[in-house]
Amino acid sequence: MTDKELFTLEEGKTLIKFARENIEYYLENSKRIIVSDSLKEKFSDKYGVFVTLNVHNFEGNPLRGCIGYIEPNYSLFDVVHRVSVSSATEDPRFPSVTLDEMDNIVIEISILTPPKLIEVNDPLEYLEKIVIGRDGLIAEKGMRRGLLLPQVPVDHNRNWDVKTFLEHTCSKAWLSSDAWRDIKRTKIYSFQAILFEEKVPRGEIVRKYLTKS
To answer: Which residues neighbour 161 within 8 Å (Cβ) at sequence distance 6 or greater?
Structure first.
């Protein structure tokens, strides 16, 4: 999502605060907050969105939950309303977050562009067409589908190259790591994201940039 004017920092702050309030209310009351009319009006356009929860100042991979919708099928307010709670309570990799844990969790929101098929005649063309820090990837073969957000290959000092990124995306889809080379049966899609995150729990919220450009 190259147009940086699509969402302002103030809008990002509003979305992060909405996500946190929704999660904490759900953990305390077992139901989501009621969405205000102003939020519905402000964020009515449809987007794919992921909400990521990370443990603050955790050495290694701090991931505590990440759930989202890839396709822009629902209004932005509706997706954040759904997946913020899901990221805290329904990620099958983790037990449900507790209310006390939220004191040490930072929230990140990724607003996605629609995925686009990367068309190649030779799998090595992927290495030129995919840009680390700009593109997220989806690997798809038959009924299997896996997604990695654009921040994954650069966060936490990973420093992946494109080949490594492709391999991990295929593995996320429960495919062999070299499935991306089978261009007849494996499809690779790319997308971009606008990212907002808390720097500390309930603290400063910033737009997150992955590249200098």
So the answer is: 132
